[in-house]
């Protein structure tokens, strides 16, 4: 039965009406108007729909809203602080790391999760972290360079 | 007509079409010479430029704005592009064939030059000076000796129309003076996209919009037996179930409700055979009736009779999916006989015609507004989903958003056609080619939705299969090589029937033909016992073409020796080269691939791809590099992994497990040598570097392991089968 569900998204609680088994993706996009996460496959195989749940990059296309509880959800929009793009978002612009950009959401979310856990990853760690994120335009090399640039920008922030 | 080709600083038309050139596809449309149709100076001093082409993720929105800003002498940031709106922009047919810069770019450049000239004349009058005394800087015109006497574009004409014709007679800015064109202007869309701001058709919301999903037959030949609407009557938010012929759609208030309704609707279908058996694909293709065109002959029979050695090989290309990361999506709002539709089609005008035909309405009643989708690389489901949304909106009189599922996108989009290529060559005693004979069997590579019958929606509504193409093209692209063989015969065998639904994919037949030609060139060089690079240079006269091949060789550190490489271990290493001039007279590309072949597993690992690239005058160097990287990676994915699977009823490659593509761990380093030719026409860079990859890899596999892969993809199973 449809009911009220409270989700903590980008630092704020939101009350939404939804069936408990509704996938988080549709609530984020259609009820909360957050267009960062995109539908790609609906099978957790491409990464276009990723969000951060806590610090973990998580596909939102099959995840039921009732399973999330009080865990903090951060979307692409939530990386922006006081109107300033996050250093990872800046790094993707600086490296012009996209063609169509439909997969960008998942790439940036995965990078955020990776760099929070592993601030200075090896090339292999970066590639492995991104292996679940598909890109059809072939922007991979730019995305890899953007992760490296993000690493540098983030370590400057820490200094 | 604004027919002048982009040709830096001069007025000659430097581009001639080869027989059956696919450039027709991009040229469809009725381009206007009304200046106001191309650009407007707004009262705030910004420039709105209109293009009938659309942004498919290749960065042309940025490149076209650079062209306008340059010619008009305004800052790049001040130019806003409006693209692909049937109520606002010129009709420029399809965005295809790497033709946006040479087509729309040329038209906008001429329009901007005309506008700049008109503004100078107006300013001269206003400032009481001659045009020769005036200086333009950042959209402000001043008298050279009296800079205090000045007027801005906005003051002269802001918010008003020019009412002028683009004459193509006013002087163009010489490329030497360029400050914006030739720079790597950053993509204007990325700041929005990295921030998650609505950017895609998928993100569009219209007040009162419902969500629609289709319930598809199990295959294209299946037909409806019965449907039980009651099976979903308890689904909350359900508004309507629409059934017309084999077309079934559900409409609900919320997206997840529409998904649920589509999943649970009980429908019985009668299945039917639609396709040949997959293991019989290439025989079935060859057995289709064909219409044959001999592009060149040069008295082949006489020449081949002098050969002392004859070679022959056949190459196979399976169906490939465009495999857009975001499935196709559209929003439609049908109110009585007025239709507004938002779609990511590469052909806004032609599609609006097909949609009007489907509805039996005059074309003026269909207003199509382009909004970007996920990258499509040709014709994916974008046109069909627009028709789906219209049918559902028409049923309820409310705006409707339809998004295809991943499975629908794979199973119902048009695929890149499967093809068979056969090459014969005769050599003399010194290993020189005396005659070259090329055959390709292919359906038309283009079945764009210019007519309602070509839309899947229409086929479901009517129960009628797609009509046969009224014309065929695309298969001839790069069938002919640019090598100076004494005799070259090229025959295109056009199949009336494509077997699976097929339409445009990046480069049309260019990639497949180059795979065959350039693999065979390698086979001939091996037979002659000559280094692959050296052998190609024997047949290359054009200095630009030679320079590109040599630049790639230099960057890659090419070692001259015949293939295969000797003394290889368990993991064999090799390198291969391939060369092409796209469409025989467009961009020039050479690719060199370095690979490792694991003899036990059959796994091919591509470590490095070097590309040298000459596309004439470069508008945006980083944009060109971005396109080349993308072309290399996508075409490598196609060469190593991709093959659409099907059975007799349906396509069975329906997700990322049954249609895997290249992942981050498998992506090679790509090194690019850009050769800029400021005095040559700017030709497209969206496709050319797609064509050389497969052959470069096949040639590298041969160099490494001594086995020749003639069927795409080069899967571990095929490599192992060739080795053992």
Task: Explain this structure.
The complex is a heterodimer of chains A (159) and B (724). In chain A, strand 1 (3-9) and strand 2 (12-18) form a beta hairpin. The model of chain A has no long low-confidence stretch (mean pLDDT 96). Chain A is 36% helix and 16% strand. A five-stranded mixed sheet of chain A has the order 2-1-5-3-4, sandwiched between helices. Chain A has helices at 24-31, 87-94, 104-117, 123-130, 140-158; strands spanning 3-9, 12-18, 50-53, 56-59, 72-74. The relative contact order of chain A is 0.15. Chain A starts with a strand and ends with a helix. Chain A folds into two domains: 3-78, Roll (Ubiquitin-like (UB roll)), CATH 3.10.20.30; 87-158, [2Fe-2S]-binding domain (DNA polymerase, domain 1, Orthogonal Bundle), CATH 1.10.150. Chain B is globular and about 80 Å long. The termini of chain B are far apart. Chains A and B meet through helix 1, helix 2, helix 3, helix 4 and helix 5 of A and helix 6 and helix 17 of B.
Q: Which CATH architecture of the largest domain in chain A?
A: Roll
Give the radius of gyration of chain A: 16 Å
Which CATH first-tier class of the largest domain in chain A would you pick? Answer: Alpha Beta
The tally of beta strands of chain A, per DSSP, is 5
**Strand proportion of chain A:** 15-25%
Low-pLDDT parts of chain A are none
CATH class of the largest domain in chain B: Alpha Beta
């Amino acid at each position: 039965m449809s009911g009220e569900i409270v989700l903590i998204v980008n630092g704020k609680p939101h009350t939404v009406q939804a069936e408990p088994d509704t996938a988080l993706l549709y609530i984020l996009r259609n009820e909360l108007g957050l267009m960062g996460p995109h539908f790609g496959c609906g099978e957790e195989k491409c990464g276009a729909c990723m969000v951060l749940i806590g610090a973990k990059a998580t596909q939102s296309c099959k995840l039921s809203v009732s399973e999330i509880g009080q865990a903090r959800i951060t979307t692409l929009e939530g990386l922006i602080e006081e109107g300033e793009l996050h250093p990872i978002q800046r790094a993707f612009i600086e490296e012009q790391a996209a063609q169509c950009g439909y997969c960008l959401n998942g790439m940036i979310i995965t990078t955020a999760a990776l760099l929070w856990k592993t601030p200075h990853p090896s090339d292999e760690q970066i590639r492995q972290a991104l292996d679940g994120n598909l890109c059809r335009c072939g922007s991979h090399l730019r995305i890899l360079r953007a992760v490296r640039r993000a690493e540098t920008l983030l370590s400057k922030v820490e200094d | 007509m604004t027919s002048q080709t982009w040709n830096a600083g001069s007025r000659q038309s430097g581009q001639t079409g080869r027989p059956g050139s696919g450039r027709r596809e991009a040229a469809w449309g009725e381009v206007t010479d009304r200046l106001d149709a191309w650009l407007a100076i707004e009262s705030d001093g910004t420039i709105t430029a209109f293009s009938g082409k659309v942004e498919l993720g290749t960065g042309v929105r940025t490149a076209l704005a650079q062209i306008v800003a340059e010619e008009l002498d305004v800052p790049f940031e001040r130019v806003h592009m409006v693209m692909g709106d049937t109520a606002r922009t010129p009709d420029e047919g399809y965005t295809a064939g790497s033709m946006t810069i040479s087509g729309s770019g040329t038209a906008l450049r001429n329009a901007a030059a005309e506008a700049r000239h008109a503004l100078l004349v107006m300013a001269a009058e206003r400032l009481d000076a001659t045009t020769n005394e005036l200086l333009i800087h950042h959209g402000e015109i001043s008298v050279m000796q009296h800079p205090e006497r000045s007027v801005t574009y906005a003051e002269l004409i802001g918010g008003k129309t020019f009412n002028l014709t683009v004459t193509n007679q006013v002087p163009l800015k010489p490329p030497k003076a360029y400050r914006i064109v030739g720079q790597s202007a950053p993509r204007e869309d990325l700041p929005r996209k990295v921030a998650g701001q609505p950017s895609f058709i998928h993100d569009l919301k219209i007040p009162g919009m419902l969500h629609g999903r289709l319930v598809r037959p199990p295959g294209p030949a299946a037909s409806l037996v019965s449907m039980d609407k009651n099976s979903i009557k308890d689904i909350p938010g359900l508004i309507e179930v629409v059934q017309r012929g084999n077309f079934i759609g559900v409409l609900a208030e919320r997206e997840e409700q529409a998904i649920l309704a589509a999943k649970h609707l009980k429908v019985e279908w009668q299945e039917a055979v639609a396709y040949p058996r997959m293991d019989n694909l290439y025989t079935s293709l060859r057995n289709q009736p064909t219409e044959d065109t001999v592009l060149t002959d040069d008295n082949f029979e006489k020449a081949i009779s002098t050969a002392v050695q004859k070679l022959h090989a056949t190459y196979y290309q399976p169906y490939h999916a465009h495999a857009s990361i975001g499935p196709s999506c559209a929003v439609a709002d049908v109110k009585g006989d007025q239709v507004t539709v938002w779609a990511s089609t590469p052909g806004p005008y032609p599609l609006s015609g097909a949609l009007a035909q489907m509805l039996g309405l005059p074309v003026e009643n269909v207003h199509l507004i382009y909004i970007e989708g996920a990258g499509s690389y040709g014709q994916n489901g974008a046109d069909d989903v627009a028709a789906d949304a219209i049918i559902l909106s028409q049923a309820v009189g409310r705006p409707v958003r339809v998004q295809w599922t991943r499975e629908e996108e794979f199973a119902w989009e048009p695929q890149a056609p499967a093809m068979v290529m056969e090459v014969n060559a005769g050599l003399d005693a010194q290993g020189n080619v005396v005659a070259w004979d090329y055959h390709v069997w292919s359906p038309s590579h283009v079945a764009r939705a210019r007519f309602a019958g070509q839309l899947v929606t229409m086929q479901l509504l009517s129960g009628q299969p797609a009509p046969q193409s009224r014309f065929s093209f695309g298969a001839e692209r790069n069938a002919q090589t640019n090598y100076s063989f004494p005799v070259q015969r090229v025959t295109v065998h056009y199949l009336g029937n494509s077997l699976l639904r097929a339409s445009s994919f990046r480069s049309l037949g260019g990639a497949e033909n180059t795979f065959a030609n350039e693999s065979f060139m390698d086979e001939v060089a091996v037979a002659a016992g000559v280094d692959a690079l050296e052998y190609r240079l024997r047949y290359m006269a054009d200095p630009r073409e030679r320079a590109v091949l040599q630049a790639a060789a230099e960057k890659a550190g090419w070692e001259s020796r015949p293939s295969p490489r000797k003394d290889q271990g368990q993991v064999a290493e090799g390198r291969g080269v391939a060369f092409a001039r796209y469409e025989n007279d467009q961009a020039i590309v050479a690719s060199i691939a370095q690979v490792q072949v694991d003899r036990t597993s059959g796994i091919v690992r591509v470590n490095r791809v070097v590309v040298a690239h000459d596309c004439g005058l470069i508008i945006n160097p980083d944009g060109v590099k971005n396109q080349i990287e993308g072309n290399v990676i996508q075409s490598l994915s196609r060469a190593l992994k991709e093959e659409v699977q099907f059975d007799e009823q349906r396509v069975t490659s329906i997700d990322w497990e049954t249609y895997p593509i290249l992942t981050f761990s498998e992506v090679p380093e790509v090194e690019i040598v850009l050769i800029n030719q400021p005095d040559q026409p700017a030709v497209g860079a969206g496709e050319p570097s797609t064509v050389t990859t497969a052959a470069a890899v096949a040639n590298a596999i041969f160099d490494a392991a001594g086995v020749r892969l003639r069927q795409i993809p080069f899967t571990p199973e095929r490599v192992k089968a060739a080795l053992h």
